[in-house]
Amino acid sequence: MEKLNIICVDDQREVLSAVLQDLEPLCFWLNIEDCESASEALDLMDELDSDGEHIALVISDHVMPEKTGVEFLTEISGDPRFTHTKKVLLTGQATHSDTINAINSAGINRYFEKPWGTSELIECVRTLVTEYIFDIGLDYTEWQSDLDQSVLLKKLH
User: Can you give the pTM of this predicted structure?
Assistant: First the structure.
């Protein structure tokens, strides 16, 4: 069975805990990792990649020390190992220009303002992971019942 990883990055532990709690229903078919900085997340991505694991999605806060979420997600976008990795920016403090930069430079797939809706976040993750599976050509059958069925139907037709 292939391992699909989601990495959640936020320097505030209470926000990170809230994201992890909201994504808990997906833990039976996705491995969800948490990091408190961009550098910790990049190290984890290197480790997972060297172990042959898939990084399907990265959810990152924007305002963090060292690197902003946009800088971090832009760096991921420029790494050929993570071409298909989906990216979500989760923030309460991004400016309009930050958001435009995230879309243009980092190629984010989705933007959420804090506070986010749990069901909306779960559906977003399900959709993006489904797209990732098809983008890289994984056999989706072992996760078929867990995937976004509307994306699944589009990809199969």
Answer: 0.94
